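Researcher: I'd like a candidate sequence for this fold, 182 residues long. If you have to choose between options at a position, lean toward the conservative one.
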């Protein structure tokens, strides 16, 4: 099944507030997969505008929304994490995530090497990274914190795969996951 076919099959089940995890194919994606022993290497928050599915995430262009259907095309695979929260809680958390994006948050290219070193060598160079910048997983954790999901709060420097590794099945449902790396 192609990623477009998978997306078309999954689309009716995707809701505002869901988290998308992606598996990429470019060099940075492969590096993240290697250093984190991960299947997934990108994360973002889904929201609806009418019937359109959008995603807001942190990528090389900064924190910006995009059409989910366009974003899917740049990846090999994806899965969906669905928080078990009320519509009001989800809408409030999405608003906070969108506000963070409105503040011009840029991508934190220095945080990626720091996470790689921590994951493989267990050494932390805490000077790398900036509180005024984000990577996709830290931006997505900002959203999960706004939702008051407890399962991700105490993970230092979370990665996309950590959203599966550390999920509480009572707080987050996992949908459309074809990876064997759970």
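Model: Candidate sequence:
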């Amino acid at each position: 099944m192609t990623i477009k076919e998978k997306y078309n099959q999954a689309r009716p089940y995707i809701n505002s507030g869901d988290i998308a995890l992606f598996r990429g194919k470019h060099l940075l994606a492969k590096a993240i997969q290697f250093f984190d022993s991960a299947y997934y290497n990108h994360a973002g928050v889904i929201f609806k505008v009418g019937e359109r599915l959008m995603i807001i995430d942190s990528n090389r262009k900064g924190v910006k929304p995009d059409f989910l259907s366009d974003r899917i095309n740049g990846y090999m695979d994806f899965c969906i994490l669905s928080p078990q929260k009320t519509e009001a809680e989800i809408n409030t958390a999405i608003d906070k995530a969108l506000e963070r994006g409105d503040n011009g948050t840029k991508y934190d290219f220095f945080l990626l090497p720091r996470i790689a070193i921590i994951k493989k060598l267990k050494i932390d160079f805490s000077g790398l990274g900036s509180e005024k910048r984000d990577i996709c997983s830290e931006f997505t954790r900002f959203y999960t914190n706004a939702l008051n999901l407890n399962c991700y709060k105490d993970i230092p420097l979370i990665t996309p795969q950590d959203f599966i590794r550390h999920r509480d099945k009572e707080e987050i449902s996992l949908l459309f996951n074809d990876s064997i790396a759970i």
